[in-house]
Amino acid sequence: MSSVGLLYVGAVLFINGLMLLDLIPGKAAAAMNLFVGGMQVIFPTLIILQSGGDQATILGASGLYLFGFTYLYVAWNQLTGASGEGLGWFSIFVAACAIVYGILQFTMFDDPVFGVIWFSWAVLWFLFFLVLALGKDALTRRTGWFTLLLGIFTGAVPAMLLLTGTYMTGAVEGLIAAAIGVVVLVVAWILGRPRATARPRTAAAT
């Protein structure tokens, strides 16, 4: 994934996390999903058309469509009021693909850090599947926090490292990335605990 595209993936994940936390309305988040979704469909198409049939280039660009179609799907649902089941079932397909892309980062591209990042995205899409397709509403806030935090740690941070030429990958960096991913999931799980409901007052004092 290009560093520029990754930066805006971080931005839209941050926005969608806020939407899942009910901090911004869905229609307010739709614009960013349209912008980034469109970018993540147009850019890989241009890359593939200019690849000259190079399989490594085509493979690298193909994963961008998973993001593009997800964000366009989110925008469609928010603007039309459509239910989320379709996006939820699409998300389990994307989660499975993300696992494959993660494995390929280890085996073909020798990039453990992005292998871990792809695996963390697989977890995120699996959460979308649980919330949207299976109706696990109790996970919505946890999914929102995880989405928001991944926007920072798998989008904005690595994008800035790539843009400034300071990105490094290897076994040690991969282990650090995996540890950060676990911490992010735990923090999201804690912050996203369902809000406690107030106990009803007794009808009369004893």
Automatic annotation (TrEMBL):
<keyword id="KW-1003">Cell membrane</keyword>
<feature type="transmembrane region" description="Helical">
    <location>
        <begin position="86"/>
        <end position="104"/>
    </location>
</feature>
<keyword id="KW-0813">Transport</keyword>
<comment type="similarity">
    <text>Belongs to the AmiS/UreI family.</text>
</comment>
<feature type="transmembrane region" description="Helical">
    <location>
        <begin position="31"/>
        <end position="50"/>
    </location>
</feature>
<feature type="transmembrane region" description="Helical">
    <location>
        <begin position="116"/>
        <end position="134"/>
    </location>
</feature>
<feature type="transmembrane region" description="Helical">
    <location>
        <begin position="56"/>
        <end position="74"/>
    </location>
</feature>
<feature type="transmembrane region" description="Helical">
    <location>
        <begin position="174"/>
        <end position="192"/>
    </location>
</feature>
<dbReference type="Pfam" id="PF02293">
    <property type="entry name" value="AmiS_UreI"/>
</dbReference>
<dbReference type="InterPro" id="IPR038523">
    <property type="entry name" value="AmiSUreI_transpt_sf"/>
</dbReference>
<keyword id="KW-0812">Transmembrane</keyword>
<keyword id="KW-1133">Transmembrane helix</keyword>
<keyword id="KW-0472">Membrane</keyword>
<feature type="transmembrane region" description="Helical">
    <location>
        <begin position="146"/>
        <end position="168"/>
    </location>
</feature>
<protein>
    <submittedName>
        <fullName>AmiS/UreI family transporter</fullName>
    </submittedName>
</protein>
<feature type="transmembrane region" description="Helical">
    <location>
        <begin position="6"/>
        <end position="24"/>
    </location>
</feature>
<dbReference type="InterPro" id="IPR003211">
    <property type="entry name" value="AmiSUreI_transpt"/>
</dbReference>
